[in-house]
Request: fold
Amino acid sequence: MAGSMPSDPEILAFIDRTEAFYPADAASQPVEKQREFYNALCADFRGVRPDDISVTDDTVQSNDPDWAIPVRIYQHKDRAVSGTALLYIHGGGFVVGGLESHDDLCGLLCHETGVTIVAVDYRLAPEHVYPAQLDDVACVYDALRETYERVLAGGDSAGGCLAAAL
Reply:
């Protein structure tokens, strides 16, 4: 039935937990404040990174000589899949999110698959208008293709959109 609220207690608890991080006027707050709300929410839900994953923070040079794109590389210590990397592109409506918000997910993906995961911290809107985000993702993808035989691209929400555009 359209417009009806779910009645499942677990779903309702999830909604309550999520809404606790966002005041009623969150959408009218400055973008920096919205990012604080989102980061706090993600930190509260964050799981533990598996022990069998090594993590390295690095950068990839962008087409702009004044901007290096932050990346986080997840590698399985015991059963790495040789020659394959997944470029993981976080969601967040192109406005929020980053390396920390999706850290546990990337660690879990690496743990479960053995594939090297490279998370990209693309420039966010509104400070950086489209296609800055796609440019950053494309630069990282191109850099990965120089190192890996197979480079996959994926992500959630806005990240999935960027992966499809790539």
